[in-house]
């Protein structure tokens, strides 16, 4: 697992996505992270979380890995079903804040985890999900293969991530919001506005829905499909790990 030093400077990370620098920024914004996201998304983050939870369809008896879990807001939604949920994040600050807020939930645990080198056994989880975190990984393809490794045959992957609106008008409005509005709001509500400059750049550099689906198939996932949320500002991808031969 990548070591995350606590002395990382708070300058904006570049698109090389150096794990230590990105992790350091998330450590700094952890206490106000959920509130800031709600403001910046105009409250849509809660709707996206509901859609992701429904796509995962958690139920009692399942073991679920929630990556890029941050402070655990998405993990709590999954744990309400009675499933055994592991909230993983590569930011020590986020994990600490998650434990402080939700450490008393018996079927929810927090683990510091690098998505490219997950500290779990093969075929350990029924479902793996990651929300708004895959684009922050320095090697997304390797992360997709790691998620496949720790998922049971026949298990599922759910990815909720910022994407690219297919309609030209919405793309223009979205780009205007990200370029002109988001930086102003981030400076007002966040302890580290530079982290949200990085957010804007990482969204612009991220592939569209079809390209991500292709990368998931290349990593070994099958039955890949997606649907757009909020006119394609966010896309929800779902896939399945091929079943073992005697399960097919």
Q: Can you describe this structure?
A:
It is a single chain. The protein has 248 residues and is an alpha/beta fold. It has a single domain (19-240), classed as 3-Layer(aba) Sandwich (Rossmann fold). Helices cover 43% and strands 20% of the residues. The protein has nine helices and seven strands. It has helices at residues 19-29, 33-40, 44-56, 73-79, 92-102, 140-150, 168-189, 193-205, 209-218, and strands at 63-67, 84-89, 108-112, 125-131, 151-162, 222-229, 234-240. A seven-stranded mixed sheet has the order 3-2-1-4-5-7-6, with helices on both faces. Helix 2 (33-40) runs antiparallel to helix 7 and helix 7 (168-189) runs antiparallel to helix 8 (193-205). The longest helix has 22 residues, at 168-189. The chain is globular. The two termini are 34 Å apart. The model is unreliable at 1-15 (pLDDT under 50). Pathway: Quinol/quinone metabolism; menaquinone biosynthesis; menaquinol from 1,4-dihydroxy-2-naphthoate: step 2/2. Keywords: Menaquinone biosynthesis, Methyltransferase, S-adenosyl-L-methionine, Transferase. One of its GO terms (molecular function) is demethylmenaquinone methyltransferase activity. Its EC number is 2.1.1.163. S-adenosyl-L-methionine binds at residues 71, 89, 114-115, 131.
